[in-house]
Structures are given as structure tokens and as C-alpha cells.
Specification:
This protein has 202 residues and is an alpha+beta fold. The protein contains 5 helices and 11 strands.
């Protein structure tokens, strides 16, 4: 797949490091690390279903925090960061005879602190209800370091060069919560190809 990053060159010399750095930085800036967070309906109300074994027989509220902390949405951790607020609207108890599932209702809202890292908020209909979700930024590119560039080599009739780089990211508050979904340091190798109009990043 070709990406529209070009470098003009009047010779077949090796790939300049500063130009490779510019192209890789532009490439990475177009691939932000994001995550989709569900926010409930238009009023911020979210029904939350879970297997009953997350609670004890008395529907112990303390188990709720453990579940929210380990859940993919991690609302408790987000609220501790100050980027969402939530409150319990209704706790649905289950009986000893029916332990298959339970459901709780919450009201969830993004705080002003969160909006700095929100890319967009979308709505869609699901089971006759409007469901909102926010795409949030997990990390922002801090800098890119070029750690190696090969001498140009010929392959399949093209002159190529491999560039190894290290990208350092700053985690957003969302990234700190969803730490398993994003890395603060990424090391990769990209291949550049020389065309008549210059080097291109493939």
C-alpha cells in the first residue's frame, strides 16, 4: 500500500535522515491511537449487563467497583481520573433461584477535562434506542527518533532503503486507563522506495 508521502531528489544518493524523519512523523500523525467509549443514550443513561457471579448473593455493591475496574469500559477508573462522571440510577437485584444475569442502570457524562481528548461523539440506534459513543485519543505523538537507515539496495527493479525508528508517545488520561491498548514507545522499520520523483514511504 502506498502512502502519499514524497521526497524530491535529483540523484540516486542514500535517503537523507532528516527527510525520512519528516515522512515517518507525518505518517504516524495520520494514525492516532484511539478507543471507542460507550456513553449510553441521549440522556447519558447506560444499562449495564453482567453475569450474576460478579455479585454475591446479596448483590454486594462493592463488587460493582471491581467489575467496572476490570471491564473493557473501566468507568470507575475513568471517573477517578476526572474525565467522566457517573451515578447509579438503579441496581437490579437477582434472586438465589435466578443467578443467570443482572443489570444496573447508570448515568454517564464526559467532563470538560475529557473533551480535550475526545475526537468525536456519535449516535446510532440500537434496539429502538439511541446509543452514544465517543472516540477518544489514547496517546499523542511526542517525537520520532531515527535509529538506523540502510544503504540503498535494489529489489524487483527498484532502489529501496529500510529505516528503523523509535516513536515516543505521551499517554492521555484515557490512555493511562486503557494502558493495555496503547504503547508509549514503538520501534518499527519502514521501507522507502526511490521513484523518478523521489523517495516514497510504502
Amino acid at each position: 500500500m502506498l502512502f502519499p508521502f514524497f521526497l524530491m531528489s535529483c540523484s540516486n544518493a542514500g535517503l537523507p535522515q532528516d527527510q525520512a524523519l519528516t515522512m515517518i512523523t507525518e505518517y504516524l500523525e495520520q494514525k492516532p491511537a484511539t478507543h471507542k467509549l460507550y456513553l449510553g443514550d441521549d440522556d447519558g443513561n447506560l444499562v449495564y449487563y453482567y453475569p450474576a457471579h460478579y455479585y454475591d448473593i446479596n448483590h454486594n455493591y462493592s463488587k460493582l467497583g471491581d467489575k467496572f475496574e476490570s471491564d473493557p469500559f473501566r468507568y470507575v477508573a475513568l471517573s477517578q481520573k476526572g474525565i467522566i462522571t457517573y451515578r447509579v440510577l438503579k441496581l437490579n437485584h437477582y434472586t438465589k433461584e435466578d443467578r443467570s444475569h443482572s443489570s444496573d442502570w447508570f448515568e454517564i457524562h464526559l467532563t470538560p477535562m475529557a473533551m480535550e481528548h475526545v475526537i468525536n461523539v456519535e449516535s446510532h440506534r440500537e434496539r429502538g434506542k439511541v446509543i452514544r459513543s465517543a472516540t477518544v485519543s489514547l496517546a499523542e505523538l511526542d517525537r520520532v527518533e531515527i535509529t538506523g537507515i540502510t544503504e540503498p539496495y535494489d529489489l524487483l527493479g527498484h532502489k529501496m532503503a529500510d529505516v528503523t525508528y523509535r516513536a515516543i508517545y505521551r499517554l492521555t488520561p484515557f490512555g493511562e486507563v486503557f494502558r493495555d491498548l496503547v504503547a508509549d514507545v514503538v520501534e518499527e522499520t519502514k521501507t522507502f522506495v526511490m521513484y523518478s520523483d523521489g523517495w516514497r514511504l510504502e
